[in-house]
User: What shape does this take?
Amino acid sequence: MTSPILCIVGARPNYMKVAPLMRAFVQAGMPAHIVHTGQHYDADMNDRFFQALAMPAPIANLQVGSGTHAVQTAEVMKRFEPVVDEHKPACVLVVGDVNSTLACALVAAKKGVKVAHVEAGLRSGDRSMPEELNRIVTDQLSDFLFTTEPDAKDNLLREGIAQSAIHFAGNVMIDTLMMMKPHAIPAAQTLAQIGFISPENARYGLVTLHRPATVDDPALFADMLRALAKVSESLPLVFAVHPRTRANIDKFNLESIVAGKAIHFIPPQGYLELLGLQAQATLVLTDSGGIQEETTALGVPCLTLRDNTERPITISQGTNTLAGRNPDHIVALANDRLTKPFDRSKRPEGWDGSAAPRIAKTLKDKLY
Ligand code: UD1
Assistant: This one.
């Protein structure tokens, strides 16, 4: 059993998915290493997560950094190929839908190395999202497709993937959430540190927005900020700001919309800080995929400020509501959540803390 599994991480949402897989591979006696593409590189977006999740250091960091989609994807491919040549992996494992996911899957597939895709089959139906293209192509290249929810299998079968390649695994990100929840930094501590509100009065909404579709169009982003400004009149908001979002607020001169409102901007948070903030939030407003899942697992109501979601189970069996992009509608839904009773009890099947061991078992049987 000498050829290793190379697990790819590149961007912030990858770390919490690969951490439990690395632990499960070690427990199953399987050789596995992390390769970091360097798509995200700031300490806030990267190092903090490795520390909090106690992840082993990568055997290689490709240091690709930022760029256009073509440049970033091409750089990952160029720099990952020699790593594959050197380590001769039994399998390259990719997670999620970022550019690094697609780039490494493509290198491996072209070299005849097996590809495992964790979080396969999610579809928003919106091909203007870069992630949707990454998902579709990565799934087509993969030999082992591990799904988190039943819809994903239907999507894959519709796209011609063989049934035998699809394995329902559950959600590895929820493995991490369940393991780390007791260690989450209490929201009161983070809020006190940023001087937002007193721990005794810690009723707040948590906001994250980072997708190009939300923050790259000045008029639409202004609408989203107007909606948040209105919501903040009933519920103070804490906005953890992605670098792209921060830059666009300045670039489009949108500061005046939120100035003087009960909206407190804070830098991107570490995993344990954001987990604590989510767990105690009255309401979460986001365009993130992962946060739709985490709020579902935590039983915290979530409004997704998008017209679609690739994670429909968070709506049918979770706490998520698709709020769209009409500011009045968003404000009305937020008021609803704040005033009406809300069922927090449902949890999707397989979101149980044991998804990574299930994946390790399948790969051990198939590869070694
Ligand atoms: C990427 C993923 C997205 C994921 C998100 C989480 C793709 C196509 N998108 O989007 O699916 O939800 O990560 O954050 O892969 N930047 C920094 N520091 C960093 C990294 C980025 O300042 O450490 C800035 C740079 O200006 C960069 C911009 O953020 O140009 C965008 O980064 P990029 O990795 O291209 O995409 P994300 O928007 O982060």
The CA atoms of residues 147 and 168 lie 5 Å apart. The pocket of uridine-diphosphate-N-acetylglucosamine is lined by residues 11-13, 39-42, 45, 66, 97-99, 130-131, 210, 242-244 (CB under 6 Å).
